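Q: Sequence in, structure out?
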Amino acid sequence: MTDTERLTLRQQQKQRTRAALLEAARRLFVERGYAAVTVDDVTSEVGCSRATFYLHFDGKPDVLRRIGAETTQQRAVSVYADLDAVLASGSRDRFTDWLRHALHWFEANRDILPVWDEAVALEPSFRPIATAAVAELPAAMPRYLQRWGPSRGDEARLRVGLLVTQLERFFTRWAVQGTLDTTDTDPAETLTDIWYPALLPPEERCSAEQG
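A: Exactly. Output:
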């Protein structure tokens, strides 16, 4: 076996170990909650040492960050990149379809969302990670930000952040807790009534209302 072949085998083994650690950490976080899981729990599941874990991750906050970035079904940032194209199209119907897709994204990732919330509440070192993850979303919408202009950029980013927050809370109360009744209504249509005009810059909103 050549040195190159040995190196390739070592790299493959490292990748398999890293993937196994991510899978084990996600499973344990979902089953037990963030606070109840230790690094030792994760390494025991995989059958490796703490030293091996720290070759791949800085700690629990980092492994949860990587779970969000690498194991979710479609990254949230790509969902909001799609929203950028939808808003640029000027189509209210496409926005409603996007909302349905966003709610499906929450459904696909519903098991990890409470873990993320728990880590934000309990782990101070995770909060900057969560803040950066939310900031990535409007950053994936350059056409949207351009329409608001540099002087209103902060407001535009805030509106996207508020949209993210309301969709998450709506999904939790509606689909997880079952405390919000949407019988005989289409949540996406109602959310469109609220959010489609709210995401338009003021001058575009006035034109849409007059039209």
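The mean pLDDT is 91.
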